């Protein structure tokens, strides 16, 4: 069974940093792009960042570019999101999600349960 | 950036009704469109990919159609479990965008 489990969320002050992790199992992690998607309270889904299976290419939404860094450790089957210079508007549930097909862009077929990030003084 | 516009934002329907949600892309995305269902406090669930392909395990009352810029999700014979929020998503490249969502409510 494919599983994704996020961790690392919490309450953080504006301007501070936080690192999210997404531990995966049940599929060949290194062949699939992985993504982060967030959902602010009462709002819709917003794609945040993605990384190819090899880790050789990364992609970011304009809202987080220059502040967030996505990475992965294929030896640990784990995805990360380093979030720096956090703002109140980054408050959201953060989901990691698996891209459906290997070696290409596709829909997100498996999602984690989400981890809550709250940015507040 | 490719913008996705869903309509309506809210839809009131009864069990047994057939409902249709539309999604329009700001430029052609071929058939690179997915539909998701989300229930409160839960992660989204993939229903449809490549505009009309049903994800494994999804009931056949869900169907998708369209290509280019205009797409639809149809739920035939709405069931109690179908009351949720639905999102379209384009994946024409490695920059994904979602529609703003359509909440399907009980009439």
Classification by helices and strands of chain A: mainly beta
Shape of chain B: globular
Cα Rg of chain B:
13 Å
Quaternary organization: heterodimer
Gap between N and C termini of chain A:
40 Å
Q: If interface size is counted as residues with C-beta under 8 Å from the partner's C-beta, which chains form the largest one? A: A-B, 24 and 25 residues
Q: Which range best describes the helical content of chain A: under 10%, 10-25%, 25-40%, 40-55%, 55-70% or over 70%?
A: under 10%
Salient structural properties:
heterodimer; A: mainly beta; 7-stranded mixed sheet; 4-stranded antiparallel sheet; 0% helix; B: 107 residues; mainly beta; 50% strand
Task: Explain what the structure shows.
- The complex is a heterodimer of chains A (121) and B (107).
- By secondary structure, chain A is an all-beta fold.
- Chain A has strands at residues 3-7, 10-12, 18-25, 34-39, 45-51, 58-60, 68-73, 78-83, 92-99, 108-111, 115-119.
- In chain A, the strands form 2 sheets. In chain A, strands 2, 4, 5, 6, 9, 10 and 11 form a 7-stranded mixed β-sheet that branches.
- Chain A is globular.
- Chain A starts with a strand and ends with a strand.
- Chain B has 107 residues and is mainly beta.
- In chain B, a hairpin with a 6-residue loop joins strand 4 (33-38) and strand 5.
- In chain B, strands 2, 4, 5, 6, 9, 10 and 11 form a 7-stranded mixed β-sheet that branches. Chain B has a 4-stranded antiparallel β-sheet with strand order 1-3-8-7, with no helix packed on it.
- Chain B has no helices and 11 strands.
- Chain B has strands spanning 4-7, 10-13, 19-25, 33-38, 45-49, 53-54, 62-67, 70-75, 85-90, 97-98, 102-106.
- Classes of the chains: A mainly beta (121), B mainly beta (107).
- Chain A binds chain B through residues 33, 35, 37, 44-47, 50, 52, 57, 59, 61-62, 95, 100, 105-109, 111-114, and chain B through 1, 32, 34, 36, 38, 43-46, 49-50, 55, 87, 89, 91-101.
């Amino acid at each position: 069974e494919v599983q994704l489990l996020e961790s690392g969320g919490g309450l953080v002050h504006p301007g501070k940093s936080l690192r999210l992790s997404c531990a995966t199992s049940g599929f060949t992690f290194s062949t699939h792009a992985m993504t982060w998607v967030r959902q602010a309270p009462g709002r819709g889904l917003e794609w945040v960042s993605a990384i190819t299976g090899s880790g050789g290419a990364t992609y970011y939404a304009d809202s987080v570019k220059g502040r967030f860094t996505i990475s992965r450790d294929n030896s640990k089957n784990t995805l990360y999101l380093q979030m720096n210079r956090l703002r109140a508007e980054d408050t959201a549930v953060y989901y990691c999600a698996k891209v459906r097909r290997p070696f290409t862009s596709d829909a997100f077929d498996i999602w984690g349960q989400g981890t809550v990030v709250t940015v507040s003084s | 950036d490719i913008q996705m516009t869903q309509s309506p934002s809210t839809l009131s329907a009864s069990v047994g009704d057939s409902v249709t949600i539309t999604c329009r892309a700001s430029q052609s995305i071929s058939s690179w469109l997915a539909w998701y269902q989300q229930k409160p406090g839960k992660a989204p669930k993939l229903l449809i990919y490549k505009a009309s392909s049903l994800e494994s395990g999804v009931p056949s009352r869900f169907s998708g159609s369209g290509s280019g810029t205009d797409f639809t999700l149809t739920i035939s014979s709405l069931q109690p479990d179908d009351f949720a929020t639905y999102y379209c998503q384009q994946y024409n490249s490695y920059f994904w965008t979602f529609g703003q969502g359509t909440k399907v409510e009980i009439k």
